[in-house]
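Re: [ENG-882] Designed sequences occasionally contain unexpected residues at chain ends

Forwarding the minimal case from QA. Structure tokens:
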């Protein structure tokens, strides 16, 4: 802890971890209120709508958020002011176009594709959330690049369900009505508040004096070119995270989607430490790579991986031991998701142990290779989802997710070690 850089990883990732835990608490609260007050089927429809939001918002961002984080961590925000403004405008235009398309085709998607007429109104509400969420994520990536981890955690994860849950509580107890659309409306209004707040901090930061003399910005066209491969890899990651819910929506019913989503959310706790450490580690990797300091990079990655190994292992054991009890919190109907939870826990443990492989490849100029690895993983995931969901339902989707997860993590870890001579993982029995 005498090393200032390693100390910064602990202190700043610790703050992120705490806020992320609170964020998950409010996301569970949001899910709990919906399942108990509005019904399990409503939560399934809300989850399906969120799948559209997460996938289409990636298209709206077009990799701009990751690329902005990369260049801002190296040169600062003031040196890239025009690039930031043009990125916001570009994302807004793409997002609004997607919103109009989804809104106008909501009837066809709901009735013809998913055969769920009640899904139409949820899709209409989520349509115009696309540009809002996209801009929030771009702004949160700015905070991440500036190593303002508290703000990054607040706008990237905590704020979304914090505001959504509070507004939903106000709706349910204020209007004393169980309107099934309250959940998706509360989510929309919560993101509007979050968007306004993110711009308040961005404007405030622009008013400060730059710590270094601004350098000449590269053209926005060249910035877009480098954003494209990052957009591709990020798109695939989001597809891997949300496509299974769409397949479940197509092949099964709303109840299965709800149970599956809750199980995945619980298993995701295992990856908390990795996510928290990445929040500060990734800008450091980009900075170290810019200085060609691979020794520093390895030291920071090893320190983070070691810390992550022990905390994730404890969380894994705790969740497995109390899986039935945790699922029963939402209702005894969710206990049938115990097998899904166990499968997902093993997948999350492998993902956590592998380290920040995707971010390492993206921050070290190997984003094109990472895109190819993820494309293969996506192909595996789609094929397995189609085959296994028909055979095993929710459990089939979980198996498909874990197999693709293992593939891209192991492949990426192997390449990082062979090409960069960097070990992204930590195992006590392997030096």
């Amino acid at each position: 802890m005498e090393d200032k850089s390693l100390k910064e990883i602990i202190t700043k990732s610790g703050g992120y971890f705490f806020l992320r835990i609170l964020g998950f608490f409010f996301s569970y609260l949001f899910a709990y209120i919906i399942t108990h007050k509005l019904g399990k089927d409503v939560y399934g429809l809300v989850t399906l709508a969120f799948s559209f939001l997460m996938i289409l918002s990636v298209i709206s961002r077009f990799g701009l958020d990751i690329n902005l984080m990369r260049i801002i961590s190296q040169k600062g925000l003031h040196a890239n002011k025009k690039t930031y403004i043009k990125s916001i405008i570009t994302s807004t235009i793409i997002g609004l176009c997607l919103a109009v398309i989804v809104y106008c085709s909501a009837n066809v998607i709901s009735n013809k594709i998913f055969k769920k007429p009640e899904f139409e109104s949820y899709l209409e509400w989520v349509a115009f959330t696309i540009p809002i969420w996209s801009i929030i994520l771009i702004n949160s990536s700015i905070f991440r690049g500036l190593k303002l981890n508290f703000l990054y955690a607040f706008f990237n994860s905590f704020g979304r369900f914090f505001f959504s849950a509070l507004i939903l509580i106000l709706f349910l107890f204020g209007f004393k009505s169980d309107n099934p659309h309250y959940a998706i409306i509360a989510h929309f209004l919560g993101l509007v508040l979050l968007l306004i707040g993110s711009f308040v901090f961005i404007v405030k930061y622009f008013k400060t004096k730059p710590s270094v003399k601004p350098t000449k910005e590269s053209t926005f066209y060249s910035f877009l070119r480098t954003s494209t491969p990052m957009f591709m890899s990020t798109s695939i990651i989001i597809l891997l995270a949300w496509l299974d819910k769409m397949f479940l929506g197509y092949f099964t019913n709303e109840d299965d989607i709800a149970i599956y989503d809750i199980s995945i959310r619980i298993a995701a706790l295992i990856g908390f430490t990795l996510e928290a450490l990445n929040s500060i580690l990734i800008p450091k990797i980009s900075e170290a790579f810019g200085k060609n300091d691979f020794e520093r990079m390895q030291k920071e990655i090893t320190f983070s991986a070691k810390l992550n190994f022990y905390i994730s292992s404890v969380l894994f054991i705790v969740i497995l031991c109390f899986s039935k009890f945790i699922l029963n919190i939402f209702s005894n109907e969710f206990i049938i998701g115990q097998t899904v939870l166990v499968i997902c826990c093993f997948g999350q443990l492998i993902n956590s142990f592998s380290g920040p492989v995707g971010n390492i490849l993206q921050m070290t100029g190997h984003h094109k290779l990472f895109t190819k690895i993820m494309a293969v993983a996506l192909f595996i995931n789609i094929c397995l989802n189609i085959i296994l969901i028909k055979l095993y339902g929710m459990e089939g989707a979980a198996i498909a997710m874990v197999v693709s997860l293992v593939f891209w993590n192991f492949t990426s870890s192997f390449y990082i070690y062979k090409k960069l001579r960097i070990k992204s993982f930590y195992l006590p029995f392997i030096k």
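QA comment: On inspection the terminal residues look reasonable. The chain has 18 helices and no strands. Proposing we downgrade this to a documentation issue.
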